[in-house]
Amino acid sequence: MSEVWQVFTKHENGIKVICKECSGLYINSGSNTTNLLNHLKFKHKKKYIELDRLRRGVSGPEAADHLEVADNDAE
């Protein structure tokens, strides 16, 4: 199970989810968690970095460095 579910709770038969950080209600498109990760990346950056470290098994500044590269690519 994806680490993203530490931050979201399924609501209404899993069609919608609630963000535990901001209490926002969002549509979950099936089992894909990309949109949920994007919500964290843009709205709750610190939590996203924490989860990214867990997902990749990385500790320390390497996870943050990875995100800076991704942010620069988006510009």
UniProtKB/TrEMBL annotation:
Keyword tRNA processing: no
Annotated ranges, domain BED-type: 1-51
GO MF annotations in UniProt: DNA binding; zinc ion binding
SMART domains membership: ZnF_BED (SM00614)
Keywords: Metal-binding, Zinc, Zinc-finger
Record has Transmembrane as a keyword: no
Cross-referenced InterPro entries: Znf_BED, Znf_C2H2_sf
Protein name per Swiss-Prot or TrEMBL: BED-type domain-containing protein
Protein source organism: Macrosiphum euphorbiae (potato aphid)
